[in-house]
Design brief:
TIM Barrel; 10 strands; 8 helices; two-stranded antiparallel sheet; alpha/beta; seven-stranded parallel β-barrel
Length: 250
Amino acid sequence: MQIDLNADLGEGGDADEALLGLVSSANIACGWHAGGANAMRDCVRHAVQRGVAIGAHPSFHDPANFGRKEMHLPPDDIYAGILYQLGALSAIAQAEGVRVAHLKPHGALYNQAARDPAIAEAIISAVHDFDPSVAVFGLANSRFITMAREAGLVAIEEGFADRGYRDDGSLVPRSEPGALIDDDDTMLEHVLSMVRDKRVRSVSGDWVSLDVRTLCLHGDGPHALAFAQKLRSTLEANGIDVQPASSLPH
């Protein structure tokens, strides 16, 4: 078995360099919810040194709320914003001799794209028009994944080690009980169930079928690095090889 491990980086956390030694894909903040030009360049350089695949992590232009507040913008605005952020990271990557391999929306943009076809289409169109070889990461089983594949993009289904799931496969909103899992053993059981058994237990206790190809490791928690180390060793101990998403079957 194989899985990609990704982390959201360049968001001001202290563990970025260390996390790059444990993950296979990096989602780099493009300045609209966190980060900036220097942070992007630093992340790209460190990712190159570690052999980690580089991805764009665009968001709504909302640094005050870390990109986690839902916004209802015209699709053309979202399209232009994705191109703006993707283009900025791509220019930095190109200067370092590499390319952007994937794009993963951040925060509210990610969650809204999973359920709103207009937002999903704006993101997908921007990626396709920029470079159709750039893959997209999205919530497993979501409409976003289906639409991306219909548009001819490589769509990578994502699972979350530290997030609770509803019965429909969506994430429990952060404002509700059960949204975050903070016990290491529970998170490891959660991950192994997704990778080995292709299912996850929802907050109601029901099983939800998922076929994830990448797992998100949030890098901004107080114990993010320690958990990342434990997760990587647990995967390897269970015969699960960590590889960039681009090398996995889709």
